[in-house]
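User: Predict the complex.
Assistant: Input components as received:
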Amino acid sequence: MDLQYKIVVGLEIHVHLATKTKIFCGCELAYGDTANTHTCPVCLGMPGSLPVMNKKALEYSILTGLALNCKIAPFTKWDRKSYYYPDLPKNYQISQYDLPFSEHGFIEIPLEGGSTKKIRITRAHLEEDAGKNTHTLGNFSAVDLNRAGTPLLEIVTEPDMNSPAEVGALSRELQRIVRYLGVSEADMQKGHMRFEPNVNLHITRDGEVFKTPISEVKNLNSFRAIERSIAYEARRQYQEFLDTGKTLQMGNKRTYGWDDDNQMTVLQREKEESHDYRYFPDPDLVPVQVDNEWLGEIKSRLCELPFQMQQRFVADYDLSDYDAGVLTSDRTTAELFDKTVQLGAKAKRVCNLLTQTGLKLANEKGVAVDQLEITVESLADLAKMTDTGDISASAATTIFEIMAESGGDPKKIAEEKNLIQKSDSGEIEALVDQVIAENPKAVEDAKNNPKKAKKSTGFLMGQVMQKSKGQANPKIVSQILNKKLNA
Amino acid sequence: MNTKIDKAQVRRVAQLSRLELSHEEVAQFSTQLSAIVEYIEKLNELDTEGVEPLAHCLPVHNVFREDLPRPSLSNDAALANAPEREDEYFKVPKILDDNSGA
Amino acid sequence: MDTVKQLREKIAAGAVKSVDAVSAIFDRIEKIEPKVGAYLSLHKEQAMKRAEQVDAKIAAGESVGVLAGVPVAIKDNMCTTFGTTTCASKILENFHAPYNAHVVERLQAADAVIVGKCNLDEFAMGSSTENSGLKQTLNPWNIEHVPGGSSGGSAAAVAAGLCSGALGSDTGGSIRQPASFCGVVGLKPTYGRVSRYGLVAYGSSLDQIGPLTQDVTDAALMLNVIAGHDERDSTSISETDAPVQDYLADLESPVEGLKIATVPQLNAGADAEVQKATQAALEVYKSLGAEIVEIEMPHFDYAISVYYVIATAEASSNLARYDGVHYGYRSPDANDYVEVYSKSRNEAFGTEVKRRIMLGTYALSSGYYDAYYLKALKVRNLIRQDFTKAFEQADCLMLPVSPTTAFKIGEKTDDPLQMYLADIYTIAVNLAGVPGISIPCGFDERNLPIGLQIISEPFSEDKLLRIARMYEKETDWHTKRPSF
Ligand SMILES: [Mg+2]
Ligand SMILES: [Zn+2]
């Protein structure tokens, strides 16, 4: 009996928008602050309070919709979604039902080996987040409403992903995009971004296709967890199919939670009990019309997206896909790199300086690379000096570190710390002659003993460098040395 | 007796409404709501083909606030009306199923 | 008894001290309130303090607000940082709002003295104030009869002279109907004219706050105080879309060439005495040179059906927040968090509130949304179009306020549908969002007041009040007060 299966995954993604205040009131967004210190009558759902829409939250959403190639609706409205839960003080969530602000987009994701894939976006809508229930009080639960009313962008994809790697790629790409747009900090640990995959298998047996019941997987708080949970579900569902033959039916969707300690999914809810959310238009909020003028104004805030930039770096600067990926993982690094190269510095050199030294220092300081004291110009100069050999690669690192601390011009620093390599051939020739005179045995081997030639030349090279206290330009030393040995 | 809305439906709606109705109330509401709904169905006499639903009387659009912080309530003010509190939190009997729908 | 305007003038002129006026009111309350039961809470200490402050201001020659030192009352569904805000419901019996409603801020800014908060049908759901979960209010004209509702407490307080003027809220007639039952003036402004911020919601797309007063002039004066844009209410109209007028400015000048629309086939539904009084009122307007045009309102008959779908649907959602978790009543018998909801709500909500929550939930539930809620929204549009057409032919529409005068306590409580049907003349006004006013236009043979309802197009309160004032000048119904 021949069996093969295809993994089918669609994602529901919730993204916290990085506005200053909540979506319907002036309370400031805060993470990990004392419970219930960022609330007001509106986000507490007090009697008589009324919501007023935060314009920035909608503009951030539309900007993201545009970046995801979505159609932006000219008319959109707010609906109430009713369900009772202690973290939802009004017992309805203000959301968007039949007229979301955007629909029908796609996101292009990078796959191994530079290939790409388009994943369709079904819709993206804006809603308010709920508070937090914690179950630390024995027989009681504690409710904190600081998070209640945080603007939440919900993005729903089509089931277009067919491997853990593809889901991981989409998740990372989306994080990169919202960070580039500056609409979210997108920190998964802080719950800025929540991914809920819907997973099942299409199993082909003797030419017939069987679809396994869909699992919705919750509480995934790292990209690795997302990938592993899907791989795990695939194995689990495959085994379940072999054991039970159970296939997809109306209402047999189940909810699983990811148990990171045991690296497995755990059943939370057997079959969705049919919710009746009783959506209806919120009478407290008026509809929104998005005219072309406003839309154009928001469009103008779009930036070059990370994946386009990554592809450009590979094509124009012939960097490896890996290097381009690292540089574009964050917008400020990518832009610093781009500007520096445009000043004529060699791409590979700038890339190495930034990825090997810059990102390390920025991380230690907990800042973005462009917040180091280094200007585009000084970085370009530093790269050029290294390429011409005026300084050694290790000297470049030292200078970078100094500039990162206190800024300054790389040439001056190199001179002060006398890191400029001696290229005066007269001076170097004298040293070479001296070394040749002092090491007849090595010279003999270098010249006439093919077995030892390489090693001995290296030895002589080292002697010269030592005499120059490391300041001789190695290129020139070896030129002169080789000339004399072959003479 | 008119049972346009029978007791089973009353119980379903009461469950959605989070109202633990007594048996008497279920019976009473079944009769009363049936009569009211019967009356409401007068609406079906009207042909509303092509009529726009009117959710707001005002032809107002695009009412926004700027993203400017306003002072929040103190923790004590926020919890002042809480039936039960524990430290800085609202306190409720343990929540078992995760029913949240965001 | 002095009207708001008269008293304010005396106080501002120093002829009367606010403290004297206010303590006189509390003396009267002490005597009469036990018979009427208009108030859910009184705030004497604070009121006297406010009065002293106002007197001090005046003594110091400082300028004072247009309600300076005048004792007023508000319906207890408007949030105040003082006392409780109960909505006459056990579920909010001990609720202390952390903020003031917009209208409360406006009253205070106008130097008014708030003496107390008035009784209402629980969450403003009712037409008799019999649905109050906390108290029974009686009609000052005859304590065997209801004061009307849901603003029954406010209407009774004004009629019985327990305050100079009051605020109520009107979702389906809750200002106009009790005003007519108690023989005072009641104005429901255009939807969006007055901010709903701090008004505890019943039917959000219908609710509107307005004054209940002794005469039309006071209604204009109090509208001047509460009308205007509020950024905290997205449905409050902007100054550019509909600028606030000075509703006192031209109040005395009659509307030239006044055209009044009537709907004979509608009036026929009212009691004989109500029809008679309405007809007589129209005669007065004729004698003033007004032209009467008889029109049809083809969708008026559907207003009750539409209202009891839309209002209850919104209410079922608006009242979901009363769950015993964050504030309000929590059942002592709740063993898990689901029971906190279902027990607390069932124990603390009154029958009418439960009935409307059930009806609204049903209308929104899957499988019924299109048949009831969506259908109702469409017919609502047709009803609004009826009004638009009416105002193309006339300046205003005149109708009875209620088919009957104040009915006996308990008379209708066991048949909710009959109670609903009595809202026929007031409900369509809220569905269309237009302004309407009820003014005294006579008494039935049991000496119970009858009201005349005048309706005009959106944001034409100035004209509406002038039309009402034309009649008031010719008659003295508004000067009649019950005796105790
Ligand atoms: Mg959602
Ligand atoms: Zn807030």
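The mean pLDDT of chain A is 91.
Let me know if you want any component modeled separately.
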